Amino acid sequence: MDPLTTSAWVALVAAGVLAVGDWTAVLKKSKRLEYFLKPATLAFLIVAAATIDASDDAQRVAFAVALCFGLVGDVFLMLPDRFVPGLAAFLLGHVSYIVGLRIESGSGTAWTVATVVLVVAGFPLARRIVRGASEHNASLGNPVAAYTAVITLMVSAAVVTGEPLAIAGALLFYLSDTLIGWSRFVRPAAWAPLGIIVTYHLGQALLVASLAA
């Protein structure tokens, strides 16, 4: 039986169409369209996750909860002066992903090793972003550092599953958030908004698709 039910297929296709529309809105700097299309994309990814016939119901629920937190985070980040609440929502989303990924992942030792490798590899970049956040606003340093730690744990949890879609999705999510941190606190780039939204949507979509693998 195909784990991708008709409802899941329809939701994924709808999310894809809305995502492309959102990328176009970002290119055209149409905030009104972005404010509709970005959360709408996540809403359909939530439907897709909820209707996929996953091998483990607990994992499906955890992923759906993670996406709900992502939707809340999207809304907060579109509002002025709501960066920290948005960060908190996404942090809780990553915790939910970790819970779901650990259901079908390798040993705790493998997770620890993967985490150490990722921390060592990402430390120079993460340090610059956290330092930039602190210089931008002293109160942002600790929240950004905590968020960086949690998303690193999420990526390492995906890596030890050995599932290519989950790994690719987690890495793209990490890349998206790294681009946010770099462009916001270190060095702005004209291309960053498009890069951020494309990698974010692809990352979330691949994590959802991994439920059917």
In words, what does this structure look like?
The chain has helices at 6-27, 31-51, 57-78, 83-103, 108-136, 141-159, 164-185, 192-209. The protein is an all-alpha fold and 213 residues long. The protein has one domain. The mean pLDDT is 96.
List the main descriptive attributes of the protein structure presented here:
213 residues; mainly alpha; 8 helices; globular
Summarize it.
The protein has 213 residues and is mainly α. It is built from eight helices and no strands.
Write the layout of secondary structure elements.
Blueprint: H1 6-27, H2 31-51, H3 57-78, H4 83-103, H5 108-136, H6 141-159, H7 164-185, H8 192-209
Helix pairs in contact: 1-2, 1-8, 2-3, 2-8, 3-4, 4-6, 5-6, 5-7, 6-7, 7-8
Fraction of helical residues: over 70%
- Output the radius of gyration: 17 Å
Q: Report, as a whole number of angstroms, the end-to-end distance.
A: 12 Å
Give the number of helices.
8
Low-confidence runs of at least 5 consecutive residues: none
Q: How many structural domains in the coordinates?
A: 1
Shape: globular
Order of helices and strands: HHHHHHHH
Structural class: mainly alpha
- Overall mean pLDDT stands at 96
Beta-strand fraction estimate: under 5%
Reported for the largest beta sheet, the result is: none
Number of β-strand runs:
0
